[in-house]
Write a structure and sequence with these properties.
The protein is of the alpha+beta class. Helix content is 32%, strand content 24%. The chain contains 9 helices and 21 strands. The structure holds zinc ion (2 copies).
């Protein structure tokens, strides 16, 4: 905070509030200042806030906005420069806050918030690892029961059920299960299509353990894959290997993205990969760092992120392989271990 020239920060994004206070509710605001930490919630959450926080001053906003209560609380008494995250504060809420705090200077502290989220404590990394392990157990179970005739939507429901059965709190996001020509829909929603022999089936799912998320993708084939699919799968796998091999502590994320794209180019498929190579993962499914051509981030120890190259031919097929990695002092550690070859079910 002092680094950034700030006396206090105002936090309105729920997962960052959780990280700073332990409170897991979906609404409220927190302030971290030199004189301590304040959490303001509304009456729905007062008991929960008491149970979940420790050494945090608590207030409940009854019949008024949390911003008004924060402004009146006195926590900013000696603070002149206040950091906010413009991406997570609406203009109307900012106005209430600023009106209640005359003579204060507000600064966007997005970079500081990103750093706080991107570099994880060992306990956070351990939670992501547990979430990844649960999803991999679910993937193994799923491959055992997959057979022609099943509908995408029923398989997705089974993923949700298996996540809970194996100890997760919930899915990390709505599971993606796509089959046949629908696999080219990058973030498609599972539908009523029934899988058939010769189809690719793409799974992209994750779960939540202690608030931390997993996110893995595998593409499998039902029966035998036609040559076009085998070749594209090899290209995606080669791009994944090249990307992982290019990761060293401190590497620019854009360079890692470029190694995947250069590999796909050798297969003539670089124009079939329209999304970023990866993203940070933690309390949110997408958080810093960004691993994309335009990223300014560097991959430094403590970061947890995905690597997920793909190839998509509209109306024909799509293939993606996604792993979760942790950056350590000695280099990257891949924490998802499910087989990456084109598995025939
Ligand atoms: Zn994913
Ligand atoms: Zn992802």
């Amino acid at each position: 905070m002092r680094h950034a020239g700030l006396d206090a920060v105002y936090v309105s994004e729920p997962t960052t509030i959780r990280l700073l206070t332990g409170f897991t509710g979906s609404s409220g605001a927190a302030v971290v200042s030199r004189s301590g930490t304040l959490l303001v919630t509304d009456p729905r959450y007062s008991e929960q806030a008491e149970r979940e926080t420790h050494r945090v001053r608590l207030c409940t906003a009854v019949g008024e906005t949390v911003e008004r209560v924060v402004a009146r609380s006195g926590i900013f008494r000696r603070a002149r420069r206040i950091g906010i995250d413009e991406r997570h504060l609406t203009l109307s809420r900012f106005r209430i806050l600023a009106d209640g705090l005359p003579r204060r200077r507000f600064r966007d502290a997005a970079a500081m918030f990103d750093e706080l989220r991107a570099v994880k404590h060992p306990a956070e990394i351990a939670a992501v690892k547990r979430a990844v392990a649960v999803s991999e157990t679910v993937l193994r179970a799923l491959l055992q029961l997959l057979e022609p005739g099943m509908r995408e939507r029923d398989i997705a429901a089974e993923i949700t059920r298996l996540h809970i059965e194996h100890g997760a709190e919930k899915d990390a996001f709505d599971p993606i299960v796509l089959s046949g020509p629908r696999t080219s829909l990058i973030h498609g929603r599972p539908g009523t299509r029934r899988i058939r022999s010769g189809d690719l089936v793409l799974f992209d799912f994750g779960c939540t353990v202690e608030g931390y998320r997993s996110d893995i993708t595998r593409t499998v084939v039902i029966g035998r894959a036609r040559p076009e699919l085998r070749r594209a799968h090899s290209a995606v796998l080669a791009a994944r290997e090249a990307a992982v091999a290019s990761i060293t502590a401190g590497v620019p994320a854009a360079d890692v993205d470029a190694s995947a794209r250069e590999t796909l180019k050798r297969f003539g498929l670089d124009d079939r990969f329209p999304h970023a190579l990866g993203h940070g993962i933690g309390l949110s499914i997408h958080e810093p760092p960004r691993i994309a051509p335009s990223s300014q981030d560097r991959l430094i120890p403590g970061m947890v992120f995905t690597i997920e190259p793909g190839v998509y031919i509209p109306r024909r097929f799509g293939i993606r392989i996604e792993d979760v990695l942790v950056m350590t002092e000695r280099g990257p550690l891949v924490i998802s271990h499910a087989p990456r070859d084109l598995i025939a079910v």
